[in-house]
Design brief:
Blueprint lengths: L2 H6 L1 E4 L2 E4 L1 H8 L3 H10 L11
Antiparallel strand pairs: 1-2
Length: 52
Amino acid sequence: MEISLLQSKIFEIRGTKVLLDFDLALLYGVEAKVLNQAVKRNAIRFPSDFMF
């Protein structure tokens, strides 16, 4: 994925930069559902601020 395209996917919400789950899933080449399941099943492997 091109850097400028990736930068356009980053939003600032209430002073925090966020990347939506379906954009992150696209970056990794998986479905958003699969990404969310992986995060839920392996919560200790992700930083506490990874999802809100």
